[in-house]
Design goal:
Order of helices and strands: EEHEHEHEEHEHEE
Strand content: 25-35%
Number of strands: 9
Structural class: alpha/beta
Strand order of the largest sheet: 5-4-3-6-7-9-8
CATH superfamily: Vaccinia Virus protein VP39
Shape: globular
CATH topology: Rossmann fold
Helix content: 25-40%
Mean pLDDT: 94
Distance between the termini: 47 Å
Number of helices: 5
Length: 197
Amino acid sequence: MTKMYFAENPDAEHDIHELNVQLLGQNMTFLTDAGVFSKKMIDYGSQTLLKYLDFHKQESVLDVGCGYGTLGLTLIKAKEVKATLVDINLRALDLARQNADRNQVLATIFQSNIYQNIEGRFHHIISNPPIRAGKQIVHEVIAGSHAHLLDGGDLTIVIQKKQGAPSAKAKMEEVFRNCEILKKDKGYYILRSRKEI
């Protein structure tokens, strides 16, 4: 059985695509490949999430499960944030590094199994979590974020209702004691929790 996009070393035969898209008013170019999430188009969840991230210049952002870099790299270019991109998938990380060069942005990109290799704390953590990896992984993305946020920082995720948005919202409320639904769009929920000061 072919390894999924949340595997460390996907074994799918390479199938390189180039996507030229406009995100947050920026012309972005992404190389994609088989064995990574959403290789043929920027998925609707990521596009929707980007619209509701009201970040400011020089704020620090951690993109958990960054894939080939859609969220983090776009935010660097559009909002001039300082972004760290992590994923377990080595193929995705290689693409993210190439895409940083292609879009002429500087990003910190390295392998981490969720928060395993993360040091320090951030203003914002974002994720389009790997739903197919299972509920436990999604809940680890949520639970682990609290320790890596600055006081007053926030976690924002996108998740489809049918793929577990209600349970993700409940987990965020358990961890942070708050969770706001920023938007519901075509079954996708944008959920945000803030770390209380």
